[in-house]
Amino acid sequence: MSFSDPLHTGAADLLIGREQELERISAFLAYPYSGGALLMSGEPGVGKTVLLDAIAESAADAGARVLRVAGVQFEADISYAALNQALLPLKDTVEALGSAHREALHIALGFGAGQPPERLVVFNAALAALQDAAGETPVLIAVDDLPWVDRVSAAVFGFIARRLSGTRIRFIATMRSGAGGFFESGGLPTYELPPLDAESAGHLVDARFPRLGRQIRRRVLNAAQGNPLALLELPNALPADQPAALEAVPKVLPLSQRLQSLYVSRIRHLPEKTQNLLLLATLDGSGDLGVLHASARAMEGDASLEDLVPAEQDQLVHVDRGTRHLVFRHPLIRSAVVEASTSSSRRAAHSVLSQVLSHQPESRAWHLGEAALEPDEQVAALLEEVAHSIAGRGDAVAAIASLTRAADLSPLGLDRARRLAEAAYLGAEATGALHSASELLENARQAAPEHSNSLRFAAATVQLLLNSDGDVSTAHRILVGAIEEGTHGYDADNPALIDALHLLSLLCIYEGTEELWGRFHTLLSRVRPEPPALLSVLGQLYSDPAHTGPATLRQLDHITGDAVRESDPAQIVRIGTVAVPSDRLSAVREPSLRVLRQGRTGGPARRHLGVLLHLALGAYHTGNWSEAAELSDEGLGLCEESGYSFFAWYFQYSKGLVSASQGDVDTAHALADRMYDWAAPRGLQAIIQYAEQVRTLAHLAAGDYEESLHHALAVGAAGELANSQVACRLFFDFVEAALRCNRGEDAVKQVRAVHASSVEALSPRLALLARGAAALVEEDDGTAARLFKEALSLPAAAVFPFDRARVQLAQGERLRRARAATECKEPLRSALDTFQRLGSLPWSKRAEEELRAVGSHVPQPDGGGAADLTPREREIAELAASGMSNKQIAERFLISHRTVGAHLYQIYPKLGITSRGGLRDALSAHDRDRSG
Predict the structure, then answer these.
(1) Cβ(153)–Cβ(82) under 8 Å?
(2) Residue of 650, 724, 750 whose CA lies nearest to 694
């Protein structure tokens, strides 16, 4: 009988991220007659006991006899206490031993009285008892906390562990890394149990705390560093009424009682000077030995870095030889240092650090704030100034914490209200902490009711209103009122005013009416000395894109050209917003990726959402449809997770475009319906038009041209482009549907409107489509051929493969109708190749039908096996076969590791395999079949 595999029994059901460790130990247990011993070490809380329990359970399930031993501190001085635990279940076996062995064990284990036996006799007797028991069934000795096993039992276990070859006995024991004890481990294999990887740690936290705020989740993951116990205990130590308000959480997370028992006692056993040094190092956070030395001398004149030695000897800290900085062995030790300190000692340490770090304004302000006991306007002003600096770098969470502390220290109610309102604005506008933003606003209102009409207060209120019932009209009225009644003097250098105008522009985009845009332009014209270029360009591009002039486009090129050097996430999102109508999103891709990476590691949710939309739209237009769909799904998930429900339509739109283009018309219509059903009751005309764009494309894909034209006309009548962002992007679909419905006059009106507008200058993609549309309505074949050639010769045409292929398809169709059977084949084949590569089934079918009509061979995708993989699935399969992890693949494609896993589970059955290990051979076999 053999031990079962822990991976395939119920023993591992509750273990997350321990597959590799279970495989390794399963291999140790797999051969029952080989014998063996294994020591499992690891830091406190890493999961040694849980893993040992899983191994013991799996062995018992397979019929093995499991002898459990737990090292206990108070029994460490009782001889044979641990051996008694191990052999007590074998009492009958002991009774069957020879008299010498039986008597020795009777006395040693306390079963009988007599002269103490020779230890070697006891050792051999214990081994004999185990061997006899293993004759009936395999035996597993599982010892937890080996360092606490008494001296004599440790010697017995060491004796046994080295004599298991050829037996059916196993010995496995756990111990803390670096721990002492009486067990002699020399020569025995030791496995160091690592912390959980980032993916598994996130999975564990999500499974146990599904409602944990994303910002706090990131803090917990960073502090725990993969330690399972810390991952499960740190959230429990947070205040129950702060599930998402990161700004209210201490800089060093508090420890639960279980975690305190692991670490705090070690800190309190250190000399007082050592504890003080560790506290200074914890509160400073830099690890700079110079700062630590100066701070220690300022706190205690005779203190020195030599006082760190006890902490180094206890493996709590070490000095990195490369950087010459003090490093805590685990972040939880920092938390334990704080837990072990008193409030007065912490204030004293902060005060000392504020003096030593006087040359670092941000650090100095924070330490002064933590050292203060009563209101202090000078310190509050410093914290507010620092908050503005931090917010400019994109760290909204730290800025909120600084503003909140500044409010606490504000002597006057008006100052307190102003700072709380700004913190609420940042919470609602950037971080996704909508609940705490609401509480901050209420606190601001109580501190100074007259401050309720301030710009920051109004802007925060608007964000909360949008993400509750989505009432844009009320939000617009509140914000316009605050701007008109404000004391800002329309100063272009007033950040609250500029932020409010940016928010107002978004409200205008959502509702899309001339009235709202008119009010925006009136307010913008009052800004002195002149409005920011970004706001001016944004207002023109969205309020009347069809008449965007050369001066505005020059400003736009300058703005997008500088995007790569921008560091403020809010500004990057705003630049992305002006890049959308002009199809200049490629210029914003690199900085957007930076913000995306910040968002995925816990950065501000609102910024994360903004760049997700821009990256998704950019991916769609450049033919990376799998990426566009995945980013859209990520955005939808983030909207639900963060509470930014208002912005879900963004991602329904981008995903709807992908679905319609691929021919998944049911999904496209479902997404468009969700957009419409949400926007219509709120009167959000622009969002309704975006839904109509998705419907128009979906009906085109289905060949239902009457319905496609119907939805295109819902955006605007033939020949009308002004004041409609969507109409300027929909005209090619409009023209194609109108011609298919024999409404050539409407198609001509639309083309003339495009020609009379600035649409071609607005975007290289729109220029391609504008000339293609002109060719579609042109009656003269020669002129049409010239227009098609001009369109497809544009330098940027290849950047937009779907649009280019649609124009090529239209060109080929026109040539075939003109009986140019030979000339039509090239554009049709090129279009078909693009459609097949993109997975655009309806348009592929149209191109195939045209080619067959002229008797041309229609190339088909390879059949069977990997041919069924989408382009993205093929890429993922190849990378996974090369040995890359899900996390590495996810980073390559800007998707989550869960999305990679979902792809792989779809790939395996397509290739006829069941696991990652078969990918390489399956792909190679397919390639050989193709070449053969």
Answers:
(1) yes
(2) 650
- Phi, psi angle pair for 881, to nearest 5°: -65, -25
Per DSSP, helices labelled H in 62-118 are 81-87, 91-95, 99-108
Q: Residue 44 in 3-state DSSP?
A: coil
Structure tokens at 658: 């992908």
Looking only at the bridges linking them, the beta strands covering 317-319 and 326-328 are antiparallel
The C-alpha R_g of the chain, in whole angstroms, comes to 35
The whole-angstrom separation of Cα 121 and Cα 549 is 100
Per the CB < 8 A criterion, the answer to whether 763 and 800 are in contact is no
Q: Which of 352-356, 392-396, 472-476 is modeled with the greatest confidence?
A: 352-356
Closest to 401 in 3D by CA, of 382, 363, 427: 427
CB atoms within 10 A of CB 274: 22
Residue with tokens 């205690």: 300
Tell me the per-residue pLDDT of 765-822, one tens digit each, with 9 for 90 and over.
999 999 999 999 999 999 999 999 999 999 889 999 999 999 999 999 999 998 888 9
Query: Who contacts 898 (Cβ-Cβ below 8 Å, separation ≥6)?
Result: none
How far are the Cα atoms of 117, 330, 452 from residue 601, in angstroms, in the given order? 62, 20, 34
Give the count of beta carbons closer than 10 Å to the beta carbon of residue 343. Answer: 8
Kind and range of the H or E element at 140?
strand 139-144
For 36, phi then psi, to 5°, come to 155, 160
Q: In what order do the strands lie in the sheet with 139-144?
A: 65-70, 139-144, 169-176, 36-42, 190-192
Q: What letter would DSSP give residue 325?
A: B
Q: Which two tokens stand for residue 575?
A: 């630049």
d(CA 278, CA 487) in angstroms, rounded, equals 48
Whole-angstrom distance, CA of residue 753 vs CA of residue 748: 9
The number of residues in the chain equals 932
In tens, the pLDDT along 676-717 reads: 999 999 989 999 999 999 999 999 999 999 999 999 999 999
Side chain identity, residue 56: A
- CA gap 855, 731 in Å, rounded: 32
Helices 472-485 and 514-525 cross at an angle (nearest 10°) of 20
